[in-house]
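Attaching the record inline, Q. Sequence:
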Amino acid sequence: MPTVAFHTLGCKVNHYETEAIWQLFKKAGYERKDFDSRADVYVINTCTVTNTGDKKSRQVIRRAIRRNPDAVVCVTGCYAQTSPAEVMAIPGVDIVIGTQDRGKILEYIERFQRERQPINGVSNIMKTRVFEEMDVPEFTDRTRASLKIQEGCNNFCTFCIIPWARGLMRSRDPKEVIRQAQQLVDAGYKEIVLTGIHTGGYGTDLKDYSFAALLRHLDEQVVGLKRLRISSIEASQITDEIIEVLQRSDKIVRHLHIPLKSGSNTVLKRMRRKYTVAFFA
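Structure, as predicted:
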């Protein structure tokens, strides 16, 4: 039985996507190994929010190569998306995939094993307009399930590389969100955390549908769900409709992670944040 090992750097979205990629390997008959074990394939899901994320990603990649120089080393995630040439230049890296087309990873591995030529599978994320469906029916070593509901961000804050790493806003089909939420509850998870790159922006690219509507439908339609959490949301995206849904629901947790970033309106303006300190007053 072929073996695969994973290492994830960065945010909850990356952890969700690693689990989704593992499902592909699991269906193909792979056994999952600890990252510090010897494996046939290593998958490193990288982060690039800061220079530290880039550095740690490179360190983990080299660690995998040292662990088994004969393994197929696959690098995915945000650092791979924004700096594919830099990643490909690391001796021992075989496959680079960005933040889309993760479903092709097994195809790329088979191709590499035939041709023994490095593969750069990164494409222009800014041209992507469709949410990449990646189901996670269960999580490894987790009692709380995450559910990715959207991808990308349209804000282009001064300091942030995320739009170039993740592309523009793409909301997941609400029917698919509800379907997977029910799947997770049926698998035994009673608490679900909604996550995304810009979670509160969900629905802005959909016709006549909002984040508040999604919260309401999850609350009403997912049978057996006990708790629903929002991973993070900006103050400017907390609408009266969302507050009303929170007030009426006994499932949605009334605890919101709201990033302030700065207590100075001048700094917020320079950062291109779409709110002022008054939102937090």
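Strands lie at 3-8, 31-33, 41-46, 72-77, 95-96, 119-120, 145-151, 170-171, 191-196, 227-230. The mean pLDDT is 95.

More tomorrow.
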